């Protein structure tokens, strides 16, 4: 019997160890969790996992990615908003993904529920088309649409997102005579584009970049400048603005913290994130992924989101709501 | 082509790579056998573990897990009537009755041999005809996929045992559940009762775990104090004899055929192919009434099919960068994290990865066979325990599985609700698998039907555009007419219909 008691004593001691060590050391004393409100394997998830691997060495703690999925990103974002502001729960979200939630839904959180820490990755949204269709730029597509009213189609990679807004903006501002086809996410969209069943499509870059490099796909126009792309020939692609469509669209991914995170922890995290974003390992990921990382601090990131929500709302009221019966 | 596969073998035949593949396969069988945990979850767990490995061993480990879960899922389907993975749901139909007859070991033997041979057939076909199959897969448009899904529903509703009416009610309930959530085209919330949690739709793992796991536990409560696997006096050799396999090759070939092609079409997944294979083999059987009571073909066909899917999904994944199901989506992410760019350039830029993975797929099936054969007896021994020990464990795994998919407790509540609903439906004689089938095929049919119409500017003739579509449509009409004819004939023979509702 005594040996049983002894085992209990050892077990109790072992169990209390993490508590003791947590009380003694500074932040970060335990694993940091990055909430990704999207499924594993997607674009945001890939960026998050690559970033987490770099952050692990710069912050000096384990960094774990938690995919908390559901309701178009709302579930995970809400969970982050309600998490303790102790610096152990981070949220990695894309600007467009939050903005469209604010615009298309009435989520149980606002932008004020977060401290915006930084942003480190920005990819514009672009319009691509199969080379067999023969369009060289957006204008040739629109001209063809004018000649065959109602025949051509432009796909949006999501049914309610920045991509749909971009299609709607092109449709609305140019009076284009094409039809809008919403797809169910990146996978089905890519299949539709590769099988050439739709005339053109809008998706966040760098989706379809390998196919563009191969010459199988062409980029017709882009929602914001492509100056960070790792593929020289595309850097000069015309933006919507340059074509007279007053709409800027892209997705900037960054880190959000629950509101009221202590300044000391914020400062430490910010520094670690800055180092991680400029680390060679993350740059190497960027080369493969197609874009070089950027660096943007909290207030700028928040400003970008405020601006995005405003213009997205305008576009939605102007061109999306008017389409619905 | 053969050269390339040999090159692939050259790359993977090291002790280290083989060890990774073996470990992955073992993990896959274990995860698959645990109700509620499925293949994408095994992948997500492996993903951060493999950061420190080189690309090929990391992906090989995931490949092993992917293959292993397909077999593991059948274990709990046969012994517990709770499919370990969605792809094993169909195996319940004949696997469990066979286990109840005291032939659990044989049923597991059929599952093992069906999975192995089907997987190897799918692998061979996939490796030898990459360009042809990838071409067919990419050419199948939304209209084709919607029609195949509809054919699946019609085929399955026609073989439901007992009342066809109850079977149809089950399928319609499944379809109804599948419409919950945001509308796939204009994102109007449908039947969400204002609950944000329901915007994403009914989580599939919640439906599976509820209708199979929790409902089965509830309905089998009265059998507590019995072991789940009653084994005949002699276990003997669990695997079917070579002579028997010669008679049953058709089930495996049909299963592998459906698995290969359904797997190769991105976005359908293994779940649908098993039902199509089951329905086809049953239709072509001389004795269709024996299905559902423990016919070995009813285990071989779906198990062969869900493993052949792995060969099918490799093609769009490796040649086009398109995920065929949830697991391959995560493997694509892993490729990127290991410094490769999935897409049409992958074959040229990293041939050692593409052909190494293809070779690994074949080897994984051999490992799966060896591990599976070894695992049958300990697994049965474990499950010979009293249900009072096993059920709490099943419930825990069910809850964990529901939670882990989304890291959110809401699906757990849904599963409990479905469990209670499933219990009452089952006690009134409604076939539960039809509900799950509706939940599986509903979104596939809806999304593709509406996409097809959206592309064709609401022209319904798109469904008769091409010859394959005409043939599938004719098949659907044939089955419907035949069922109506048979039902009318039955009613004439029995002037007083048997009302047992």
Overview of this structure, please?
- The complex is a heterodimer of chains A (325) and B (501).
- Chain A folds into two domains: 159 residues, D-Maltodextrin-Binding Protein, domain 2; 126 residues, 3-Layer(aba) Sandwich (D-Maltodextrin-Binding Protein, domain 2).
- Helix content of chain A is 45%, strand content 19%.
- In chain A, strands 1, 2, 3, 4, 5, 6, 7, 8, 9 and 10 form a ten-stranded mixed sheet that branches.
- In chain A, strand 1, helix 2 and strand 2 form a beta-alpha-beta unit.
- About 2% of the residues of chain A have low confidence.
- The mean pLDDT of chain B is 85.
- Chain B is globular.
- Chain B has a two-stranded antiparallel ribbon.
- Chain B contains 21 helices and two strands.
- At the A-B interface, helix 2, strand 2, helix 3, strand 6 and helix 7 of A face helix 3, helix 15 and helix 20 of B.
Brief account:
The complex is a heterodimer of chains A (325) and B (501). With 325 residues, chain A is an alpha/beta fold.
What keyword list fits this structure?
heterodimer; A: alpha/beta; D-Maltodextrin-Binding Protein, domain 2; 10-stranded mixed sheet; 11 helices; 10 strands; 45% helix; B: 501 residues; mainly alpha; two-stranded antiparallel sheet; globular
* Low confidence ranges of chain B: none
Radius of gyration of chain B in whole Å, from Cα? 22 Å
**Name of the CATH class of the largest domain in chain A:** Alpha Beta
- How many discrete structural domains of chain A? 2
| Multimeric status of the protein | heterodimer
Structural class of chain B: mainly alpha
**Overall pLDDT of chain B, averaged?**
85
Helix/strand-derived category of chain A reads alpha/beta
Helix content of chain A: 40-55%
């Amino acid at each position: 019997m005594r040996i049983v008691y002894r085992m209990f004593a050892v077990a109790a001691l072992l169990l209390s160890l993490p508590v003791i060590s947590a009380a003694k050391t500074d932040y970060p004393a335990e694993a940091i969790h990055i909430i990704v409100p999207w499924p594993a394997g997607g674009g945001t998830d890939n960026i998050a996992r690559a970033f987490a691997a770099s952050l692990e060495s710069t912050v000096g703690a384990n960094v774990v990615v938690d995919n908390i999925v559901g309701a178009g990103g709302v579930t995970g974002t809400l969970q982050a908003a309600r998490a303790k502001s102790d610096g152990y729960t981070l949220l990695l979200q894309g600007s467009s993904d939050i903005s469209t939630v604010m615009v298309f839904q009435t989520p149980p959180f606002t932008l004020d529920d977060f401290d915006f820490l930084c942003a480190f990755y920005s990819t514009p949204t672009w319009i691509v088309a199969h080379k067999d269709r023969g369009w060289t730029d957006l204008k040739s597509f629109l001209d063809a649409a004018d000649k065959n009213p109602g025949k051509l189609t432009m796909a949006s990679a999501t049914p309610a997102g920045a991509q749909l807004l971009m299609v709607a903006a092109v449709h609305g501002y140019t009076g284009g005579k094409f039809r809008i086809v919403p797809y169910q996410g990146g996978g089905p969209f890519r299949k539709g584009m590769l099988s050439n069943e739709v005339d053109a499509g809008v998706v966040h870059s760098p989706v379809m970049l390998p196919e563009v490099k191969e010459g199988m796909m062409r980029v017709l126009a882009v929602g914001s400048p492509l100056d960070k792309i790792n593929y020289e020939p595309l850097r000069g692609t015309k933006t919507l603005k340059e074509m007279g469509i007053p709409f800027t669209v892209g997705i900037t991914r960054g880190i959000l913290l629950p509101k009221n995170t202590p300044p000391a922890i914020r400062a430490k995290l910010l520094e670690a994130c800055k180092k991680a974003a400029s680390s060679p390992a993350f740059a190497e990921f960027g080369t493969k992924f197609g874009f070089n990382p950027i660096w943007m601090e909290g207030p700028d990131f928040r400003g970008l989101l405020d601006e995005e929500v405003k213009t997205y709302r305008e576009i939605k009221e102007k061109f999306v709501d008017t389409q619905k019966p | 082509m053969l050269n390339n596969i040999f090159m692939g073998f050259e790359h993977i035949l090291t002790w280290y790579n083989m060890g990774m593949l073996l470990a992955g396969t073992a993990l896959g069988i274990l995860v698959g056998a645990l109700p509620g945990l499925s293949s994408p979850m095994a992948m997500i767990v492996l993903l951060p573990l493999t950061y420190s490995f080189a690309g090929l061993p990391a992906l090989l480990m995931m490949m092993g897990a992917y293959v292993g879960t397909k077999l593991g899922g059948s274990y709990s389907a046969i012994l517990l009537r709770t499919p370990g993975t969605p792809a094993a749901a169909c195996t319940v139909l004949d696997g469990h009755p066979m286990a109840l007859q005291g032939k659990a070991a044989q049923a597991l033997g059929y599952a093992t041999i069906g999975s192995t041979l089907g997987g190897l057939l799918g692998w061979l076909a996939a490796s030898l005809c990459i360009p042809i199959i990838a071409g067919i897969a990419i050419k199948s448009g939304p209209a084709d996929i919607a029609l195949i899904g509809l054919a699946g529903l019609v085929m399955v509703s026609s073989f439901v045992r007992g009342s066809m009416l109850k079977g149809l009610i089950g399928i319609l309930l499944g379809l109804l559940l599948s419409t919950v959530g945001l509308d796939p085209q204009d994102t109007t919330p449908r039947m969400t009762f204002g609950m944000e949690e329901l915007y994403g739709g009914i989580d599939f793992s919640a439906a599976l775990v509820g209708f199979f796991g929790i409902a089965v536990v509830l309905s089998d409560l009265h059998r507590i104090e019995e072991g789940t696997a009653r084994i005949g006096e002699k276990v003997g050799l669990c695997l079917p004899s070579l002579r028997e396999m010669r008679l049953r090759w058709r089930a495996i070939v049909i299963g592998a055929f459906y698995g290969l092609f359904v797997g190769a079409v991105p976005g359908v997944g293994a779940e649908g192919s098993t039902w199509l294979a089951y329905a086809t083999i049953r239709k072509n059987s001389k004795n269709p009434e024996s299905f559902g009571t423990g016919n070995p073909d009813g285990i071989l066909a779906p198990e062969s099919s869900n493993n052949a899917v792995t060969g099918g999904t490799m093609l769009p994944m490796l040649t086009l960068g398109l995920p065929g199901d949830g697991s391959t989506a995560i493997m694509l992410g892993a490729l990127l994290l290991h410094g490769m760019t999935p897409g049409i350039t992958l074959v040229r830029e990293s041939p050692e990865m593409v052909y190494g993975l293809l070779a690994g797929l074949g080897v994984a099936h051999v490992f799966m066979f060896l591990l599976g054969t070894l695992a049958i007896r300990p697994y049965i021994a474990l499950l010979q325990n009293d249900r009072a020990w096993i059920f709490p464990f099943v419930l825990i795994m069910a809850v964990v599985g529901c939670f882990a998919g989304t890291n959110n407790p809401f699906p757990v509540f849904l599963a409990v609700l479905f469990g209670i609903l499933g219990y009452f439906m089952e006690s009134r004689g409604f076939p539960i698998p039809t509900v799950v089938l509706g939940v599986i095929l509903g979104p596939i049919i809806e999304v593709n039907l509406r996409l097809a119409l959206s592309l064709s500017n609401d022209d319904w003739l798109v469904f008769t555009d091409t010859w394959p579509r005409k043939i599938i449509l004719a098949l659907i009409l044939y089955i419907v007419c035949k069922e109506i004819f048979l039902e009318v004939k039955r009613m004439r023979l029995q002037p007083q219909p048997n009302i047992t509702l």
